[in-house]
Each structure stands twice: as C-alpha cells, then as structure tokens.
Records
---
Amino acid sequence: MRIQDVPHGLNVVIETGATIYIGRFDSLNGFKALLHSCDVHPIGAGEDVEHYVRDAATYGVNVTQGDAEVDVLGIKSVRLLRDVPKLA
C-alpha cells in the first residue's frame, strides 16, 4: 500500500528504517504525512518489530505523541492497522 492511497481517519502502521509510527492518518502535506494520536517507537537492535505491531493491533495504540509528521521519502512500508493479525 502507498501512503497516498490511505483513506483519511484510518489507523496505519508506517515503518521507516529506524522508527515505527502507528496512528490515525490525516493527510499529506507536500512530502510529509500527518498522523494523530500516535505511537512513535524507535526500532531497537534485534527487536521483533512484527510482535510490537501485532501488540498494538490486539490491545490498542499506546499513544506517546499527539501528532507526528513522517517524511514520505523515508517510508519503507505502509499498512492498515486493522489488517494486522492480532496476537493469539
């Protein structure tokens, strides 16, 4: 999925090289994606990124920041949080 295709108001998971952003997509402003009610999480060495994302899908977004702007050119992947499998 491309960030340009995400509908307004849906929760998304955006992965860059060093950070995971989970939040409610608002809009694109030039080369920045604006998210609200976000969890901005730096990826640690050896961290299981998929488990972290699945935890958010299961238990909800741990809001650590009200708003976040993500540089569109640095995005590695985008997916809807609702499409992420929940933990068993």
Note: The helical segments are 49-59.
---
Amino acid sequence: MPHTTTMSIRELTRSGKKLKEYDYIDIEDRKSHDYKGVFVPEKYADEVKAFLQKRLAKEHQNRVEDIMRFAGILSGATENLSAQEIKAKKMREIE
C-alpha cells in the first residue's frame, strides 16, 4: 500500500525531508482545499514521465486523426456518401 500524504505547496517547499518519506504527495490549496496536483519523488519520476509521454503522444495522434478525418470531409473524400456509408467507411479504417 502506498505511503502518501496531503500538503499545501508552502508545506511542501518547507519540508524537504518529508519528500523522500512518501511514495507521492497530493498538493492542495491550504485555504480552499482545492486539489492542485501531485508530487512524485525522484525514484518514480522516470516512470511517471514515460507514462505521460505515451499518453500525450496518443492524445496528440488522436487529435491529428480527427483533423485528418475532417480534412477528408472538406476535400471531398466523403462526397456523395450517405451518413451510413461514411460511418461504415470509418469503421473499416479503424479495424
């Protein structure tokens, strides 16, 4: 089970020793208690970065594919096709 805690940004900057005691630290606003993010110590940093790079690359690729599908509509690649035919064509492209 992960060893975690919740701190404000101010507490985090003042408590350098605590950074290595936890697997991760949730960061929240001290007054409003709004969640701000998570701090990950250096022992997990490379894994987290790799995960985020993969996820961001996938999101970027999905946005590019959406734009290219829209561009296909504008270029006439789907001209004279019914909605059902366009849907079937997209399903074939996905498979």
Note: DSSP finds three helices and three strands in the chain.
---
Amino acid sequence: MTVLWVTLVVALVVHEGSHYVRLRLAGLHPRPSFHFPGLGWKFAVEAATPHQLRSVWLIGPLAESVVWAAAALLFPGETVYLLLLMVVELMTNLLLPGSDGRRALRSLREELGRRPSSWAGPQQQAP
C-alpha cells in the first residue's frame, strides 16, 4: 500500500515538474500558481503558439504515465493496483474541467475547426 502512495506523490511531482521544464524550454517564463488539485504553473498564454500550449499541457500526463509504468515494472506484486490508479489519475486529468487533457483537446478542436477539411474532397468555387 505504501508503494501506491509513494508512486502517487512521485507521479504528481514529475507531472508538474515536466510542465515547468517544458515551459522553460519554450521560453514561456512560468510562475507558481496554486489551484486544484494543488500545484500548477501560470504563464503568458498570449506568447505561446497552440502547438506549444498543447505540448505543455500533454507533457505532464505523459511523464506521469512513465512513472506509473516504471513503478509497475519495479513492483510486480502491485502492478494491477498501480495500473488501475494510473488509469484513474489519467482519466481525471482528461475529464475534469480545466485539466491538462481537457485544455489540449479543446485547443486541438478549435484549431481543427479553423482549418479547411482535407477529407471534404475538392472545394467548389462559388459562381
């Protein structure tokens, strides 16, 4: 049971730390922001491209997934519980309003809505 709690704490620290590192690499100058679920980073969204924003939002869950998978490999007796907790944590990150996954999906939907669809076939010209 201790393995689950330690992994959860490590996963959350890695999740937020990876956001910070990605923000710094993108030159977005993060500053701490304390909101639900507890940690977070605020940054100037105006200075970021949609691609940069999505990469910042998605790097956290990706890094967290690596921690959960590594823990499942290191502690085979706890694998089922670790993977179950990973799924719950990642689904929470996708479904909660304001979560990383939700913001990334909304951003992608908005960007795809602005582009002409390549699946629609040849565009017809108005007479």
Note: Residues 50-74 form the longest helix (25 residues).
